[in-house]
Recover the amino acids of this structure.
């Protein structure tokens, strides 16, 4: 079976790219068709794609495309329509911001039309009112133009998401959603059913080392106040890292921030503004002598990230309306609890001690040792402060069992992802 992989673009490394990596591990000879490929912008992760066959679209010939990827998305449908995918038996697209699903399927001589499966990380967030890295709607000049363009792009996006039939402009035979949250979005915006297959996490990488680390630490008298909190994120507006920096600085809690992005300079300034003076004190450390510290680590290697997870006290995940969220899974694979913004796909992975189900409204309660984190809602400084204090209280009561947390993370392993993808593909190829 001849397989082609299609991906929005390869200019940054995140959850979507990890899904692409896992798909390429299943079909290592499959070429990857993408709008743009820029190894320089991938930093430490560029080497992962070095041996791949990657084919860029005509968009890579546009002037200054490295700086205009966001504006050029108006042409994204055309980028993918122009790829020649004739001769392939199966096409799997990986799509969120651009329209990778808009590929044109052509029948090669003597062959059937390829089957197109779209792994949808989310319908484009900027088209359907979800928070994005850049809030262009705040600009009074750009907003009216952007709204008109987005209207036509929503039409194109809807058409590309339909089932291909005669006299139809549809392109997608079937959808895979990366979470129940995204499954609901696909139903709402595309009126299509989908199958949920959670993204892959290399849980073994975190679990094995974490178990050894925890066993070693049993004999160490570690004062809880000396352990740091951790944020792993792209530093853009929708990720709400500014909220964590404000709260941790005011409370005098040590925080390490992993990741880069356009908001780095602003976040550095914010950390300085909110740093606690010698006279102030936070509720989390009332009466204690503690120096606040916010540390920006930038991009780190996989080994460094693993160690950061292992040594942290908890991971704080503040992102708004996250499609799924791989960072909480990585944290839990290391046996660490997560303090999470109670929105989006994170509700499907993090278990709060007592919370109300976002879908059913039912109150769910868990016993000691059977939760993996704490929610906060809404995304405000006050709400996050309350969640941190709740976490500290539960931590004192040994509410978080690293063994249970690690076992829970196994549900999202890379091996599970590959099995489910292959099973799904086989069911469609028959």
């Amino acid at each position: 079976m001849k397989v082609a992989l299609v991906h929005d673009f390869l200019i940054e490394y995140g959850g979507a790219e990890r899904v692409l990596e896992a798909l390429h591990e299943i079909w290592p000879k499959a070429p990857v068709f993408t709008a743009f490929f820029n190894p320089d912008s991938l930093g430490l992760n560029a080497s992962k794609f070095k041996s791949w066959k990657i084919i860029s679209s005509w968009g890579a010939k546009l002037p200054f495309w490295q700086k205009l990827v966001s504006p050029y998305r108006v042409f994204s449908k055309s980028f993918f329509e122009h790829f020649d995918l004739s001769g392939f038996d199966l096409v799997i697209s990986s799509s969120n911001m651009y329209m990778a699903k808009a590929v044109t399927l052509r029948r090669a001589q003597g062959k059937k039309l390829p089957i197109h499966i779209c792994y949808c990380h989310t319908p484009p967030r900027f088209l359907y009112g979800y928070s994005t890295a850049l809030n262009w709607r705040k600009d009074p000049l750009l907003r009216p133009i952007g709204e008109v363009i987005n209207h036509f792009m929503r039409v194109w996006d809807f058409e590309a998401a339909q089932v291909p039939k005669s006299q139809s402009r549809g392109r997608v035979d079937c959808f895979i959603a990366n979470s129940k949250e995204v499954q609901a979005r696909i139903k709402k915006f595309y009126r299509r059913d989908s199958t949920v297959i959670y993204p892959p996490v290399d849980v073994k990488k975190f679990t094995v080392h974490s178990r050894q680390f925890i066993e070693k630490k049993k004999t160490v008298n570690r004062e809880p106040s000396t352990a740091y909190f951790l944020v792993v994120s792209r530093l853009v507006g929708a990720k709400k890292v500014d909220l964590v920096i404000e709260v941790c600085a005011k409370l005098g809690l040590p925080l390490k921030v992993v990741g880069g992005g356009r908001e780095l300079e602003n976040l550095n300034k914010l950390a300085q503004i909110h740093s606690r003076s010698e006279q102030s004190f936070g509720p989390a450390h009332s009466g204690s002598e503690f120096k606040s510290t916010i540390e920006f680590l930038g991009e780190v290697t996989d080994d460094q990230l693993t160690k950061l997870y292992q040594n942290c006290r908890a991971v704080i995940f503040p992102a708004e309306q996250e499609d799924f969220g791989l960072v909480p899974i990585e944290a839990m694979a290391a046996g660490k609890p997560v303090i999470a913004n109670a929105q989006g796909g994170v509700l499907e992975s993090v278990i709060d001690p007592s919370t109300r189900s976002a879908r059913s409204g039912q109150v769910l309660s868990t016993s000691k040792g059977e939760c993996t984190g704490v929610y906060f809602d809404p995304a405000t400084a006050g709400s996050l402060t309350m969640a941190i204090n709740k976490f500290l209280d539960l931590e004192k009561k040994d509410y978080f069992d690293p063994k249970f947390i690690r076992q829970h993370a196994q549900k999202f392993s890379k091996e599970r992802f590959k099995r489910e993808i292959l099973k799904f593909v086989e069911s469609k190829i028959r």
Remarks:
- The chain has two domains: 3-200+414-429, 203-412.
- Residues 203-412 form a domain with the Rossmann fold fold (CATH 3.40.50.2000).
